[in-house]
Description:
Elements: H1 3-18, H2 24-45, H3 60-78, H4 82-96
Amino acid sequence: MNIQDAQKQVDDWIKNHGVRYFNELTNMAQLTEEVGEVARIIARRYGEQSEKESDKQKDLGEELADVVFVVLCLANQTGVNLQEAFDKKLDLKTKRDHDRHHNNEKLK
């Protein structure tokens, strides 16, 4: 599935199950909340904080999918073609950073 298909799938889901999109500010707050849940798992599972027993069952993939879902909602409701934007960004990064990371001593 490409990003454009994912945007359509989310839009169809909202229309059939979600009644309507939450407003942009609510979705931004929701995105922040979901990113926080990802950060909590990463900090405890891969970082130096200890993982609580209640956090051990949390699924990182599910939390990342929540982030993607809300990003797709925001793109849909603001008229952003995320596939186009992503392709453009990847092309820009490829041209700009072609040798940058290979020449970074910190990455060797």
